[in-house]
Amino acid sequence: MTNPSPEAPPIHAQGLHKTYKVGFWFNRTVRALQSLDLQVDAGQIYGLLGPNGAGKSTTIKILMNLVRPSGGTARLFGQPVEDAATRRLVGFVPENPAPYEYLTGREFVTLAGQLAGLSGQELDTRVTEVMGAVEMAGAEKLQIRRYSKGMVQRVALAQALVSRPKLLILDEPTSGLDPLGRRQMRDLILAEREKGTTVLFCSHIIPDVESLCDRLAVLVGGRRVREGSVQELVSAQVPTVEVVVEGLKPEQVRGLGIPLESVQALDGRVMLQVADVDSQRLLGGVLGAGGRVNRMQPARFSLEQLFMNALKESGRASSVGGEINT
């Protein structure tokens, strides 16, 4: 194997497919990934956003060589993901970390450092640094079986950081953390980016993706349905206007014959969203029907709305209604 190339993107995947055989007799097929292309450039925080079952974790498992793809190619720093030397450049936090529970937090992170090739004073100093960075120094001598889920997430991040990786792959790293813990985790990820570390960040928690990522891909049903920066994806949408109407019922507003994006009854009022190009027709229609416009303002298009639109377009919105975590 040749050495990892510093000029090559940290992650490059092309045409990834993954099909699983399921059922008692393995007679049913599930497509977890379908023709996925993905490139993460150096220094980026790149997000994978999608509902449960979208293919995010499968993508990460392929990149970590834990699962073999059914088709396509995946490379880290220009080398196949099977290359063990290249994987030494990667720090990984799985979705459900399960460190050996009878080790203390410090012992576990020390073991991770030893496996990465650290030793002696360098190892001891680095373990102290990362345990402090994830705010686990006060619990480092406790056995992991006594840790809460949030503490396990923190020590899992510490083991991923101990070898100073060039690429961090994080699968739902804020899962199980309270609001303060989520904020601290986001700060740590941003601090790593400032050091030049590339981060692949997988989540279905939309605010975390929106606040962290330089670029993101929306996955639905194993396919990439959107890709770009948050600003690009949000600003590319059709401008909408939010209107609050009094004196008319929702069915009367719908009966005006103007396409509406949403209609919601609010204690004698109706709040709706309409495309900006149709807003003046709506205003005239409401006044002509004897109603009043209480408020009319541009609506900020959010990443959550983009996500919901992507789900609707792929026919998945009704099946994942309880899975979107905002």
UniProtKB/TrEMBL annotation:
Q: Does the keyword ATP-binding apply?
A: yes
Q: What keywords tag this UniProt record?
A: ATP-binding, Nucleotide-binding, Transport
Name all ABC transporter domain ranges.
11-246
Which SMART domains does the protein's record reference?
Answer: AAA
InterPro entries per UniProt? AAA+_ATPase, ABC_transporter-like_ATP-bd, P-loop_NTPase
Question: Tell me, what is one Gene Ontology molecular-function annotation carried by this entry?
Answer: ATP binding
Instruction: Say which domain of life the source belongs to.
Output: Bacteria
PROSITE patterns given in the database record? ABC_TRANSPORTER_2
Which family does the UniProt entry place this protein in?
A: Belongs to the ABC transporter superfamily.
Q: What is this protein called?
A: ABC transporter ATP-binding protein
Can you name the source organism? Answer: Corallococcus interemptor
